[in-house]
Amino acid sequence: MKVYTIFLYKTFLIKSVLILLLSLSLDLKSQRVLTVGGTNWTVTVPPITEAGSNYTGTYESATNQVLLGASVPLLLGNGKVSVQYQANPTWNSNLVLSARRTGNGTTPCVGCSITGGTSYITVPLATDIELFRITAVVALASYSNIPVQLQLSGVSVAIPAATYNSLLVFTIAAP
Amino acid sequence: MYCKTILSISLIVSFKILAQSTGNRSVAVTLPVVTLMDIEPAGAISLNYTTPTEAGNAVTVPTSNTTKWVNYTSAIASGGITRRITASINQVLPGIDIKILAAAASGSGGGTLGTPAAQITLTTTARTIISGIGGAFTGNGINNGHRLTISLTTNTYANLSARTNTPVVITYTITE
Hints:
Chain A is elongated. Helix content of chain A is 17%, strand content 41%. By secondary structure, chain A is an alpha+beta fold. Chain A starts with a helix and ends with a strand. Chain B has one domain. In chain B, 10% of the residues lie in helices and 39% in strands. Chain B contains 1 helix and 12 strands. The chains are: A alpha+beta, B mainly beta.
């Protein structure tokens, strides 16, 4: 009786381990993880004080306005971080949003790499555009606190006076 | 045993729920209503009749002044009323018409700039010299905006009288 119980226990143990491994493998296959930190950006536009003048037109956020965390499992090799914007609810198409990566963040992974996105790219409306790419070499590529700076251009008195809001949506996916 | 299996599956599901591949941050900007106008360069101008040198001739009307420019910056809400610029004087001189004409905008401006009116004779009642100003800026300083031509004409010679340094103030106003 005792032998039979031990046999059952071992069978359960093996099955559980198999299920766990299977689940992990499924996770590794399907999951690149992105976290978005930092703070929302409220653009400060200095008032116009001289008749005839327009706004400077281009404004930049702090260099670490957005802090991204990204991880790519070794089995997947690499991941592409993209960005798009969405009106929330009102935006003006003459207001141009751009983003750039201002640093590499931190990673415990030796040999992993992060590339691209160090110059401003124009963020399109509702269409992803690649910002940068992460590559895993011998281990899980996990980066944290990747700093991203934002830029707003096209600000002009020719745009109707109003408050405009948008969402910058960051996504990690297969390249 | 079933309970443990269910627990394992729950654990797997929780792993998947915790994983995320997207996130966002917001961007907000407020563009206020702006209404600014000035005349460049600052300072007074002189328009002097000149004495005839030949008996029997009329006094000579001064040459028009074209040194002044109207600069403005205007930002209006969507669907808002456009702006206009009016001009008036503080006093009418007997026998003399003071006239003003704004030219089409030129220089480094942009947006929905105003449309000049035809030449008008200034009175103590404000009259429109430029209209239809939307979201626009003219550029700053001379050679930007609307050049003004200010001139004098004699309307009734009999009403002219000798005077010295009579200041006439032209008031410009930007309004809806």
